[in-house]
Amino acid sequence: MWNYTSSTIKPYHAFRNEFGKVVELVVRGSRMVVPSCMRQRLLQLAHEGHPGRTKMQQRLRLSYWRSRMDKDIAHEVDGCEGCRLFSHPDRPEPMERRRMPEALWIDLAIDFLGQLPSKDYLLVIIDYYSRYKEVGILQKITAKVTVDRLEKIFIRLGFSTTITFDNGRQFDSYCRSRRIFLNRTTPYWPQENGLVEWQKRSLRKRLRISQSLDRDWKHDLLVYLSMYYSTPHSTTGKTPAELLFGRNLRTKLPTLVDLSTEAPPTEHGNCDLREKERGKDAENLCRRAKPSNLGVGAEVHMTNVLLGNKLTPTSNLSVMTVTAFRITKLESHTT
Hints:
Elements: H1 10-13, E1 19-22, E2 25-28, E3 31-33, H2 39-46, H3 53-61, E4 64-65, H4 69-78, H5 81-86, E5 107-113, E6 121-127, E7 133-138, H6 143-157, E8 162-165, H7 172-177, E9 181-184, H8 194-212, H9 217-229, H10 240-245, H11 267-287, E10 298-303, E11 315-323, E12 326-334
Parallel strand pairs: 3-4, 5-8, 8-9
Antiparallel strand pairs: 1-2, 2-3, 5-6, 6-7, 10-11, 11-12
Helix pairs in contact: 8-9
């Protein structure tokens, strides 16, 4: 009595009325049913010439039948060393977006651009929070040169907590000494450090324009950075300068701020004014200062501060103009 629920018989139960016999072979229609002892050898013969999965399926289905044959075909193709070496790469993994850091200038991305036709390199540093970037021009990308430039930038803006970088070894020890975690990207996969790669693409565009127009690329680089710092970023909606420094930079483009002649009062401004007034009163008292009645065109004697011989007069008679507590010499003659 056949047990149709067993794992061996169950795959064939649905086709029980389609099987036949030719000599000593079991067939299903015009196709032979492959016995278990011949399955591996049949797969090896069908894979000669290194066909892919689809071609092997088409080739074997033409003359043979067995349950789960497609699964064995896939296993045979995947296990072939030659096919693995020269087949198309697997589909990429689903993307994982990087979360925005919690604060400014703590999570940075760094990379190099070059070598340029001028034999220079560009050190590109991006802040993941503000999208502010620093671009340094280097003649070499050795560890010492790179560290010296990083130190100057970090002294101005502070040391970050993490740095995302490729597998270069320029500043491993430097990051350890500054307690900066070095986050290495996957080799030969620049998309992992996509933010800095995108910024490098923008830089390359401006450098190519500058070279095509036979311009000074270093000056054009500064012009581009000025534009970048003062332009709202497409992701944050704020300018990099506003997020990092708390203010927008003044550029050649006129704004309403340019029409303001007096700064609005602030707490620190009031403190500054009080301290200046206190210092002015104390200094005037110490110098016994008093107001004068000098006016425009007044003739006064001014101490001669220029070096001369023993016969040089100690003062000159000068015609002066007085403007806003300042005296400007117009003409003078020796007395």
